[in-house]
Amino acid sequence: MSVSTATVVPVQKEKMERYVLENERVLGPLLLLPAVFYIFALVGLPLVLAVLYAFSTASAGNPRIESPNDFVGLRNFRAVLDDGVFLKALRNTIFFTLASQAIVIVLANILALVLSADFHGKRLVRFLIMLPWTTPIALSVLGWFWLFDSVYSPIDWLMREVGLLGPGTTFGPARNMYWLGETALAQGAVLLVHVWRTLPLATVILLAGLTAIPKDINDAADIDGAGFWRQLFYIRLPLLLPILAIATLFSMVFTFTDLTVSLVLTRGGPVNDTQVLSSWAYFKGIQGGNLAQGAAVALFMLPVLIAIAIVMLRLARRGGQD
Length: 322
Hints:
- It is a single chain.
- This protein is 74% helix and 0% strand.
- It is an all-alpha fold.
- The N and C termini lie far apart (66 Å).
């Protein structure tokens, strides 16, 4: 009896393991379970907490929500909408996102076309293009902060060497460009850093899409006598539309939710002219101690991001069906 029992148990265990490993309906959810827990812990719980804070009186001195009296409805959202800095931060966020992505789309297509060709040192060039994306964002923004320094900026030195700065030159008697102290220059600096940061990712995604285009299509176009521009607008771009939509989606999300560039480079200045929603939520909720209004500012990004995702994914699906 003991022998038969000892024989049956391993057989049943082996059948169970085989059932789990060979059944996709069982194996799939099991493999996805760690990712679901990870996303829930890193995204789900903070999102729920932010929603609760946005409708409450939570502050840095008292972050707990202990009774229904702590909830104040839409009062925090009304206070945020009446804040002139919030409206300026919202406009700046939209401007930086749309302007940077328009530039990134053009430059990423150019770089992807260049990198898809065969030339000596192509791997080194690809590595250098990816460096901005792999470098920690806080460290890279500190590098840009030095480049835009009003006294020791190498950009100013180069402009003086070629005669663009100094008495009687193109920019008049000024000896320095106050890159982070004047509104137009500061906004241009923030925009440049956003383009520099997101361009590598978009380039790599588009490069992957270019390499996936069947070579027979390009050969047929060459035989038919189609030039570079005809192949670009009638072959490559239509085939790249789904990939382009995904690249744009990722870049827009990264730019729209970015905190580091404005915080480290300008701290929202001058006079909040480079303030964005993420940095204003940080100043309001963390430095200002008003967790409720900081959470309310941050929640204004959620519907915009959902709308961007829906539009881009529909565009990608439509492009794939076509």
